[in-house]
Amino acid sequence: MGFSIALIIFSLLLMLLVLMHKGKGGGLSDMFGGGMQSSVGGSSVAERNLDRITIVVGLLWFACIIVLGMLIKTNS
């Protein structure tokens, strides 16, 4: 039960973090106005931290799925 709740929380958090990323261009973000970017080279500290947090939450989400799959397999 605890891993199911954690999976739901990590899923919602991962969706929020992905939507917070700035569009890099060439994708669907250009269609909805994401193509207007400044020509500043490199990423800001906030963007790099957002990338790191997104990766960590994604790894935790993946680990929850693996653990839930193993629990379901051993219970059946």
UniProtKB/TrEMBL annotation:
It is found in: Cell membrane. Keywords: Cell membrane, Membrane, Protein transport, Translocation, Transmembrane, Transmembrane helix, Transport. The chain crosses the membrane at residues 53-72. It is a multi-pass membrane protein. The keyword Transport applies. GO terms for cellular component: plasma membrane. Pfam families: SecG (PF03840). InterPro entries: SecG. GO terms for biological process: intracellular protein transmembrane transport; protein secretion; protein transport by the Sec complex. One of its GO terms (molecular function) is protein-transporting ATPase activity. It comes from the Bacteria. Belongs to the SecG family. Involved in protein export. Participates in an early event of protein translocation. NCBIfam families: secG (TIGR00810). This is Protein-export membrane protein SecG. It comes from Streptomyces corchorusii.
